[in-house]
Structures are given as C-alpha cells and as structure tokens.
Recover the amino acids of this structure.
C-alpha cells in the first residue's frame, strides 16, 4: 500500500430477527419441497425503506422450513 492511502469505509448492520418472509412469484422458481426462494436472492425495492439504503439477501438455501433472509441496513458508505 502507498503511504497516505485512505480506504473508504462502509458500515452495515445485519438484522436476522424480523418477521419478513420472501416467496417466489412464480412456482417454477421455488426450491425444493419447502418452496423457498433461491439462495442469492436480493430484494432492494418495494418492501424496503423509501429513503434509507437497505436490502434483503437470502445468502444460503433453506434446509428446513421457510427461509428467512437477512435485512441489511447500510449506515455509512464512503464507496458510493
């Protein structure tokens, strides 16, 4: 690294305990018997806050029951 290098900082709070569940709009996109959304599904419109930077991410496949995506709140982002 160069002397004086100032990397950008990003602060993100991840919320796991919430009541939001995501479901596929089309049944052919469902995964397994439980009908969960595919791993990697990201939602950043419609159900998110209108003025804050937040999104939902289902980072892994659900093994049992309904998948619960994590809710990410970006508090500070120097990298925009």
């Amino acid at each position: 690294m160069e002397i004086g290098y100032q990397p950008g900082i990003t602060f993100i709070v991840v919320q796991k305990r919430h009541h939001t569940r995501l479901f596929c709009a089309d049944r052919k996109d469902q995964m397994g018997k439980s009908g969960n959304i595919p791993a990697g599904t990201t939602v950043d419109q419609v159900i998110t806050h209108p003025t804050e930077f937040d999104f939902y991410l289902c980072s892994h496949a659900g093994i049992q029951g309904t998948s619960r995506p994590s809710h990410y709140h970006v508090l500070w982002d120097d990298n925009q």
Summary: The chain has one domain: 10-77.
